[in-house]
Amino acid sequence: MTQLSPARPESLLENAQNGFSARVDQQKTPTAEKKIILLTPRGFCAGVVRAIDVVKIALDLYGAPIYVRKEIVHNRHVVEELRAAGAIFVEELSEAPSGARVIFSAHGVSPAVRVEAQERGLKVIDATCPLVTKVHLEAVKFAKQNHTIILIGHENHDEVIGTLGEAPDHMILVSTVEDVDKLILPNPEKVAFLTQTTLSLDETTSIVDRLRQRFPLIKGPKSQDICYATENRQVAVKAVAPMTDLLLVVGSKNSSNSLRLVEVCQRSGVASFLVDDESDVKLEWLENVKSVAITAGASAPEHLVEQLIDFLRKNGFGALEEIEIKEEDVRFSLPPELTQIQMSATSI
Fold first, then answer.
1. Can you tell me whether residue 292 is helix, strand or coil?
2. How many CB atoms lie within 10 A of CB 199?
3. Cβ atoms of 111 and 33 closer than 8 Å
């Protein structure tokens, strides 16, 4: 039975940021020496839950096929499950027939994509994460004010491509402090910055600090663009890193937020690997390891975590300790394209 431990590890409390609670639940076998530390929060964020629900509800309402531009979220297992249910994933709208029903992914799209969809008579359901939409709206606002917008993000990421498309003539992408040092701007007094929502908090802070040094009048968003789930999962990793020998992050290789979790742990001096599922784990990683921490990126399903725990238990890790850094209760409503139809159906 899971019990609340009265003792909280000092390293966890020292590393958790202000405002973050910490709870430790332990499941132990009497003779177990090797331990699994399960981090909470982990896995699906509100935007991912919403995006997956959009595809499933659309399939229920309209039947297959439903076209989805890009991967709905960056996780191979999720995409494969939805593909089996009747979703057809395409890279560009030109791959969908005229008049088809198309879902935009959680990472958002540029205005040019929306125009193309309208011109081709596509029936669009927009599953863009509301936190990404917030960044798009900020880009439009700063562009109307004739600011040069510095977007902090990773080149060619789907989210970054969509955000750049909101104000291509006003926006410059940077990924490192070195990129900031190379900037030559038309008016250093009219500058703003925005960020991709799935970045490393530490790296982004360094880049923003350098931007403020170079451009003291730079404006930023009213609230940070890095999403709550990205922040919470990184804080949990930093808090638990001193307590473990190894961190396994469940997530796909194209998941930005999952990759950042690996990097955060490695910068703490603890070995960390990204695994799509338990089949990616190499047994040599577990040699001389007494404790393995597990977390999952914001687009990784919980059943993959459960399978990884089963795998580790079969390989000698008999104790399970769950550590909760912060409780998450964020929920996003469905897009209006679906809520209106659902309301009409219930009124009949």
1. strand
2. 25
3. no
Q: Closest Cα partner for 142 from 160, 161, 169?
A: 169
d(CA 91, CA 74): 13
Q: Quote the pLDDT of residue 18.
A: 44
> For the segment 152-200, what is each residue's pLDDT rounded down to a tens digit?
999 999 999 999 999 999 999 999 999 999 999 999 999 999 999 999 9
Terminal-residue alpha carbon distance, the chain: 47
pLDDT for the residue numbered 345: 54
Cis omega (within 30 of 0) for bond into 168: no
Non-local (6+) Cβ contacts of 24 within 8 A are 4, 5, 7, 8, 9, 12, 321, 322, 323, 324
Tens of pLDDT along 214-225? 999 999 998 889
- Reference 148, options 101, 119, 185, 103; nearest CA is 185
Looking at residue 222, its pLDDT comes to: 86
**Integer CA distances (angstroms), 222 to 146, 182, 193, 343, in order:** 18, 26, 11, 34
Q: Output the CA torsion sign for 157, 263, 45, 317.
A: positive
Contacts of residue 19, Cβ cutoff 8 Å, sequence gap at least 6: none
Amino acid at 299: S
What pTM does this model have?
0.90
For each of the domains in the chain, give its residue range(s) and CATH number, in order of start. Answer: 3-45+228-324 (3.40.1010.20), 47-129 (3.40.50.11270), 131-214 (3.40.1010.20)
Q: What is the DSSP letter of 297?
A: -
The CA distance from 232 to 325, in Å, is: 8
Structure token digits, residue 299? 């687009």
DSSP conformational letter for 93: G
As a residue count, the chain comes to 348
* Active-site residue set: 159
Q: 15-69 pLDDT, tens per residue? A: 444 444 455 555 544 345 899 999 999 999 999 999 999 999 999 999 999 999 9
Q: How far apart, in whole angstroms, are the C-alpha atoms of residue 243 and residue 223?
A: 32
CA dist., res. 149 & res. 190, Å (int): 9
Tokens 């011109």 -> residue: 119
